[in-house]
Every structure is written in C-alpha cells, then in structure tokens.
C-alpha cells in the first residue's frame, strides 16, 4: 500500500513540478527491494528492481547502476549490479535481480540506485532514483528470534481454531457427563 502511495506521489509531483514539459514524456519510477535468506554459514541478499515507465512515450538507452554495495562487506553471487536496455515503452515495466552474500555482521542501509535514460523530446540525459532500502540487519542473531516468533504465529494461525474447537467440545462433554451439585444434593435428600 505504501509503495503505491509513493508511486502516485512521485508521478503527481513530476506532473506539478515540470509544467513546461509535455505529459507525453517518459517518466521512470524505480522500486528497489531486498530480501535476506539465511544459509548455514552465510546470508544471501536478493536485490530486485522494478522500473516502471509511467509516461506515455518511450524511454531510450535505459541504464541501471547500483554501486551502493561495498566490496569489503558484500560479494556478488549472481547477476550484475548494473544493467542496460535499449528501450522501455510507455506503461511498461522492466525487472532486474542480483544476489549478494554478506561477508560481515553489520546493519546496512541501502542507498537509492540511479537509472539514466533518454527521452526523444529532450537532449539531456534524464535521471531517476530508486526507493532506498529499509535497514538490513546482516548475520544477526535477531533473525533466529524473529524466525521462532514467526513459527509461533504460524502455529497459532494454523492450529488455533482447532485447539479452540477441542476445548469447547471437551468443556461441553464435561458439563454433560459430570453430575451437577444440585442433582447430587437432590439425590441425597431423597435417601
């Protein structure tokens, strides 16, 4: 939901701030995401990009460059931190993914990546910045605690209703099987 709000705000600010240019020009919005997957002795960070052309015309010579990952802290496992495409038509989306391995325990804040592109109506190269990354807590013990809490939540969601039904049935059975105190008192009076 928040990402959609960012997209809408970015698009509206572009329209309001650049009144002199035509609405038909290409305008790129870049989303940068990262997810951590824990391996036995390391963590892999999968970085993915979605490049959206929210304008109506084509963007040419689109290049993505994400050199925000220091080589002393990260090792590239697969993919490239940069890529280029010949064109991105209006209303279309490009995707790019690469995987890194964390070398040391740290908290990392990912800066925005830069996307450069050409528009047919302008001679100057255009730039777009991606969304920044949230805080990445790398090789942390907190990850294991969060995983355990997540498992507890999964069990509560999956087995909670079943446990409630079992408790309700057992209480109902207890009430039916066990004689009440008033019945016991009445039977004593009769004797």
Q: For the largest beta sheet, what order do the strands appear in spatially?
A: 1-2-6-4
Q: What is the beta-strand fraction?
A: 35-45%
CATH level 4 superfamily of the largest domain: Immunoglobulins
Q: What is the strand tally?
A: 10
Quickly count the helices.
Answer: 3
CATH architecture of the largest domain: Sandwich
Q: Calculate the mean pLDDT score and round it.
A: 79
From the helix content, strand content and strand pairing, which structural class follows? alpha+beta
H/E topology pattern: HEEEEEEEEEEHH
Termini separation comes to 73 Å
The CATH topology annotation of the largest domain reads as Immunoglobulin-like
Helix content: 25-40%
What is the strand and helix layout of this fold?
Elements lengths: L1 H16 L10 E11 L4 E11 L5 E7 L8 E5 L3 E7 L4 E10 L3 E4 L4 E6 L6 E4 L5 E4 L3 H36 L3 H10 L1
Antiparallel strand pairs: 1-2, 2-6, 3-5, 3-8, 4-6, 7-10, 8-9
Task: Describe the overall structure.
With 191 residues, the chain is α+β, with helices and mostly antiparallel strands. It folds into 2 domains: 2-138, Immunoglobulins (Immunoglobulin-like, Sandwich); 144-190, no CATH class. It is 32% helix and 36% strand. The protein contains 3 helices and 10 strands. It has helices at residues 2-17, 142-177, 181-190, and strands at 28-38, 43-53, 59-65, 74-78, 82-88, 93-102, 106-109, 114-119, 126-129, 135-138. The chain has a 4-stranded antiparallel sheet. Strand 1 and strand 2 form a beta hairpin. The chain starts with a helix and ends with a helix. The model has no long low-confidence stretch (mean pLDDT 79). Keywords: Membrane, Signal, Transmembrane, Transmembrane helix. The chain crosses the membrane at residues 159-180. It comes from Ceratopteris richardii (Triangle waterfern).
């Amino acid at each position: 939901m928040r990402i959609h709000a960012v997209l809408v705000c970015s698009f509206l600010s572009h329209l309001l701030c650049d009144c002199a240019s035509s609405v038909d020009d290409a305008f790129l919005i870049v989303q940068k995401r990262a997810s951590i997957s824990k391996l036995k002795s390391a963590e892999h960070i999968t970085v993915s990009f979605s490049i959206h052309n929210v304008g109506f015309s084509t963007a040419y010579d689109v290049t993505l460059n994400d050199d925000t990952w220091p080589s002393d802290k990260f090792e590239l496992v697969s993919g490239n931190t940069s890529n280029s495409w010949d064109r991105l038509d209006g209303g279309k989306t490009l995707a790019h993914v690469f995987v890194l391995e964390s070398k040391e325990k740290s908290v990392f804040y990912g800066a925005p990546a830069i996307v450069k592109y050409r528009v047919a109506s302008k001679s100057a190269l255009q730039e777009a910045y991606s969304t920044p990354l949230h805080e990445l807590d790398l090789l942390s013990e907190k990850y294991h605690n969060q995983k355990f809490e997540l498992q507890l939540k999964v069990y509560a969601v999956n087995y909670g209703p079943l446990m409630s039904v079992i408790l309700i049935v057992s209480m109902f059975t207890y009430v039916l099987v066990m004689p009440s105190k008033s019945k016991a008192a009445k039977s004593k009076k009769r004797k």
